[in-house]
Amino acid sequence: MIKHIFSDMDGTLLDSQGNVSDTNANAVKDSGIPFTLVSARAPMEMEAAITKLGLTEPQIGFNGGLIYQKTDNGFKVLNDNPLNMSSFWQLMKVIQNNFSAVSCSCYGLNEWYAEKIDSGIEYESKLTGQKATVTDFDKLSDTKLYKIMMITFDLELMNKLNTALLRLHIPDVSIKRSGDNYLEITSNLAQKSKGIKYIQKLEKLAKEDMVAFGDGHNDLPMLTNVGWPIVMDNAPDEIKQYGKYITKSNDDNGVAYGINHLLS
């Protein structure tokens, strides 16, 4: 019996314009099954989807770095793994000194911070509808930070950035590419699988009780930890091999299609 559904957002629940379709929203609501978003996004970037879906269950942000619930008083933290600030500054020294052409920003629980508004920040703002708070990162020393986000549309520069940061061999961070243009840095404890296991333990779920929808490499820890892994048709072939089923694409309401077929 299916008791909990987990879903990635970008490329999965959201369409190519970054929206939750009415078809997907209705399928989630009509199923009556607890539903958790599992995303690299910050809570503020997940809030519109949470509201449209009417979710009250724990949600997973920053790729598992934060487990939280949306309440009338804001976001209630249930479990978190922020960045180690000494590692943050080690990374920032390299980024600021050698990669100033790359857009750099970071996220706290309720704020998105940038030192300047550049083309990368403008691009992300249009995509998510969020506005960055412009501040010197030096002023964030007492702030819990969960993610550093780097954006560049220069593929060669992105490859150089990725290589340079990996060569630092900082043990307590996870440095991962997200598509061609994004590089995201979180705590090494921020893993989608840890978020899944936290909720599994909280709700006393068996592996066979859980469904997950995903489309990317960072979804594999989630897909391999549930009994019913469902992969989007728009996913790369190497991801599809991990799916028990392949559903329709994110632009064809694949989550709704998958839910309706599972329940029938």
Automatic annotation (TrEMBL):
Task: Tell me the GO molecular function terms.
Answer: magnesium ion binding; phosphatase activity
> What SUPFAM superfamilies is this protein classified in?
HAD-like
- What does the entry list under GO cellular component? cytosol
* InterPro entries per record: Cof, HAD-like_sf, HAD-SF_hydro_IIB, HAD_sf
Pfam families noted in UniProt: Hydrolase_3 (PF08282)
Alphabetic keyword roster:
Hydrolase
Q: What is the name of the protein in this document?
A: Cof-type HAD-IIB family hydrolase
What species is this protein from?
Candidatus Companilactobacillus pullicola
